[in-house]
Design a protein that fits this description.
- It holds the Pfam family FHA.
- Keywords: Membrane, Transmembrane, Transmembrane helix.
- It comes from Ruminiclostridium sufflavum DSM 19573.
- The protein has 149 residues and is of the alpha+beta class.
- It is built from 1 helix and 11 strands; from the N terminus they run αβββββββββββ.
- A 6-stranded antiparallel β-sheet has the order 2-1-11-10-7-8, with no helix packed on it. The chain has a 5-stranded mixed β-sheet with strand order 4-3-5-6-9, with no helix packed on it.
- The protein is elongated, with a radius of gyration of 25 Å.
- The chain has 2 domains: 43 residues; 95 residues, Tumour Suppressor Smad4, CATH 2.60.200.
- About 5% of the residues have low confidence.
Length: 149
Amino acid sequence: MNFNILDLSFLSVIFKVVLVIIVFLIIMQALKIMSKDVKRSTLKGGKNLGWKLRLDYSGDGGSFISGDIIPIGSRISIGRNQANQLLLPSQSVSAYHARIYFEDGRYMLEDLKSTNGTYINGVRADKKSLQPGDEIRISQTVLVVMDDE
């Protein structure tokens, strides 16, 4: 009978060790995620670079006119659907055409599998980091990336 009691206490110890290891792994994963967030937030207060888009040509209509300045913030969506922050109502613009977002200390432009594509400096782009002065063309609309200076 003593042998069975020892077996159960041994299993109890193993269970406790496994539980401690699992908790340790969860805490390490959480710290890893928080570390990435802290690294991202160290650049310009952590929100974004404060860049803007200048509308150079608004051939697709909408409520914006040439010369308008549109802040990007942490992200901006572009497309024909009313849910987008930058609405381009032309039929040659996809419902959800593209998005610009802040990631790892830089702005990225991502084409959302649009029919007619998104062009940066005349080259079709699926996903690319942006620089001040880059020219973005979506259908007949031309936007220029501006930094906060």
